[in-house]
Amino acid sequence: MLHLQRVHHIALNCRDVMKVAVFFKEILEVPIDLSQVSETDPLYFQVGQETRIGLHPYSSEGQNGIGQVDHIAFSVASRAELDYLVDKLEAENICYRGPIERPQSYNLYFETPDGHHLEVRLDKDENDDT
After folding, report:
1. For 7-21, how does the pLDDT look when each residue is reduced to its tens digit (9 = 90+)?
2. Which residue of 56, 65, 109, 122 is surrounded by the most CB atoms within 10 Å?
3. pTM > 0.70: yes or no
């Protein structure tokens, strides 16, 4: 019997790995060593305890649809963090939708420079009035 333990990594095809790496470093404040970026090799970095993301150089135009990743959702712990990110997106003139209030969460949507769909969400705690 198979027991999957966790997602090892998520690979994103990028026209410009450096541009997407800088986006993750500056906008999402992921600690990435930009000196490791190569035009021909993938760049991997850690998000939280368990998640790795790989940025892979890719020269052809990507296609959305069946068989493609729709988006990556990250979580934050407070409304203040979500609002902080909105302020950063506005300061950088990055288009976004939200935060949208849903019954279980607040959801914020935006894209990397290469068009990868990202979501940052705050799950509502039933004992919290976030």
Report:
1. 778 989 888 899 999
2. 122
3. yes
